[in-house]
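Reopening: structure tokens for the magnesium ion complex, inputs below.
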Amino acid sequence: MQYRVGMGYDIHRLVEGRKLFLGAVEIPYTKGLLGHSDGDVLIHALCDALLGALALGDIGEYFPDTDPQYQGIASSRLLKIVKELLDKSGYKINNLDVIIIAQEPKLIPFKVHIKEKICALLGIAQDVLNIKAKTNEGLDAVGQREAIACYATASLTRGE
Ligand code: MG
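Re-run output (same inputs, fresh job):
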């Protein structure tokens, strides 16, 4: 059996006039995440964790923020493309662990829905993905409600 581990991190600025998407779920809030795509920081961190485990670089190499074809794109589509790379490699997802750091809004009510969405997009069982949500205790840009950050870890296996 071959094992791989990858980590991902992302942060996006919270601004007015944008919808908030986390894990392909639209979350009611007064602000949304600024980005070339829909700014879904959770999916971006997850893509980077998977690409990292596959030793395939990072999300910016595949989906440059200067490329107009990715302008406003739903990040679920980016995750689908990374899933295709994963399938091609022969590796399977062993487990995924995600930490969303947001001072606001409270994400507990949305965790189940986010989990369902990501598991469906990746074709994995729900006990393979863990999502943790926490605040930044009021500290720094995330704590001041200026941004939302996310960390993700991916463990993959291949073979017998
Ligand atoms: Mg990003």
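Strands lie at 2-16, 20-22, 25-27, 31-33, 92-101, 129-134, 147-158. Residues 2-158 form a domain with the 60s Ribosomal Protein L30; Chain: A; fold (CATH 3.30.1330.50). Marking as resolved unless the reporter disagrees.
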